[in-house]
Write a structure and sequence with these properties.
Shape: globular
Strand content: 5-15%
Radius of gyration: 15 Å
Distance between the termini: 13 Å
CATH topology: Rossmann fold
Number of strands: 5
Mean pLDDT: 95
Structural class: mainly alpha
Helix content: 40-55%
CATH architecture: 3-Layer(aba) Sandwich
Oligomer: single chain
Strand order of the largest sheet: 1-4-5
Number of domains: 1
CATH class: Alpha Beta
Length: 128
């Protein structure tokens, strides 16, 4: 599975508050799944940290394999962008990169923004 940035933000908030919620429950319900994040998610999440909190950032992302972008993902990004633009349903570039990554890996995307990503044909979207 590929985790969207919203998932990791929600997980971080639950951990900081010491109040388990949907993100934590999703982890509990799927203990044996390979959970990954796009390098784009890595960058988006890094925005919320500073040099002083970088160790906290690394601890948060440590359990997840970070998936780099490939030529095939870039091609898929271009296809998605063209299709959605022609339908008047454009998504932000970072979300397109994340969706393209999930599609190329052939895995579901886990996100709080289900309706946002469900516009993408062929993408399996899971919420928590």
């Amino acid at each position: 599975m590929l985790l969207d940035t919203t998932y990791l933000i929600d997980l971080q908030r639950e951990l900081l508050r010491r109040t388990p919620g949907g993100a934590f429950q999703f982890l509990s319900d799927h203990p044996d799944l390979l959970l990954r994040i796009s390098v784009v998610t890595y960058g988006e999440l890094a925005e919320g940290f500073t040099r002083e909190t970088r160790a906290d950032f690394r601890e948060l992302v440590r359990p997840y394999e970070v998936i780099p972008l490939t030529d095939d993902m870039a091609w898929r990004f271009g296809e998605l962008s063209r299709i959605l633009r022609s339908e008047g349903q454009r998504l932000g570039d970072n979300d397109l990169w994340i969706a393209a990554t999930a599609l190329e890996l052939g895995v579901p995307l886990v996100t709080r923004d289900r309706a946002h990503f469900e516009r993408i044909t062929g993408l399996t979207v899971l919420s928590y």
